[in-house]
Amino acid sequence: MPHTRSDVSRPLSWIAHRSIPLRVNFVLIMALVATQACIASDVIQSEGVHSVFIHAEDNCRVDNDKTLVRCDQLPHRLRAAHIRSDEWISLYIDNAKYETVVKTLKLFRKAGFTNVDVFPPFNGTNLSSKVKRWIRLEVAGLQNHIFSMLLISTERFETWREEVLVVSEARYDVIDRFAQARIAQPDCISFKDFRMGPRDDNAIAISTHREGQNRACVLPTAASCEFLSDLLDISDVSWTPMEVLPIKHVRRELRCDVPAVHDVAALPNQPATLDRLFEWIRTEQKAALKDPLRVTEPPDIDLRPLLGVSRRELLKSLGLPDFCAIPEDVTCTKSTRLGYLFYPHKPSPSTDTGNGYTDAKVTFSEGWALELYTVDDVVKKASWVKRE
């Protein structure tokens, strides 16, 4: 029977923040064995890094100070604590109202705080009640890394955890009927029953919202891959290559054995042209630089169209690279090795180490990069490389 969202909570997940230093990352990794409440109550602070927690009733807490302040007073509170506008701030928004998060971020920007990162919420974005219809696909199970999460809707809105597909009303109706029919099957169980039952491999949880009503359930492990394959095969939806990718990101978490027909480079009537490949690289890299969930494995995209491309055309289409070979020129435009990062990274402020030297570091979360090697200003090799 279908299950509502009101009497069950979603499985606890954890993530490692994409830009804070190593000591804080260690604390976040301990979320595997700690509860979400523990993380929210005690955070080890690194120099120049601060944490802001949004609580109920639009109240906020700064670092380990137990005193709550109104969220609209945050800029004043931070300045009173002598926190500079260029210091890093991690904003924790679990269970916070959507409107409060949006308003708080606007206040930070207006006050000139330039390095505010939203810590992706454990259970996904708490969507505004103004969003009338949505479908969420998430991975249920024992999470030992960042799991992908997908929202499908007819409206555009800000999220801080999920990838979002915005489709037309007609296409959404088809997808919604498909999801509702699957939720109605008796083998799709409640979150409560899933947590209490024996654990197998990870499974897909489906949640839907329409006309103020929520329905949710967890599919059996064996049926989860079939559900995603059937979703991709709905003929009346006609997924575009770019729409297929977020579904694939969720599918990868289950290690599904799905025919390669769903790969972007192998879709019917979608030849792997150079223009399409450039478009995919630009779109995915822009999203991946903000979202650590975007590229967790090397994308199975055919890179062969890049071979033989001139350096000039490459730089014109993709822009300046994120890194290059040594010796490097200032803009990396003359290097024989050009790299484009597909994960968040952020430079930290430079520090004077004395004797005329300056120490400038870049904080990375590990991820994948597209590396291109040129000979005589022509691309001879293109590959995905894991950077740690």
Can you describe what's shown?
This protein has 10 helices and 18 strands. It has 388 residues and is an alpha+beta fold. The chain has 3 domains: 98 residues, Oxidized Rhodanese, domain 1 (3-Layer(aba) Sandwich), CATH 3.40.250; 134 residues, no CATH class; 98 residues, no CATH class. The longest helix is centred in the middle third of the chain and has 15 residues.
The geometry reads as globular
- List the helices and strands in order: HHEEEHEHEEEEHHEEHHHHEEEEEEEE
Helical amount: 25-40%
Largest beta sheet: strand ordering: 3-2-1-4-5
Q: Name the structural class.
A: alpha+beta
Distance between the termini: 46 Å
Indicate the low-confidence ranges by residue numbers: 1-44, 260-271, 347-364
- The overall strand count is 18
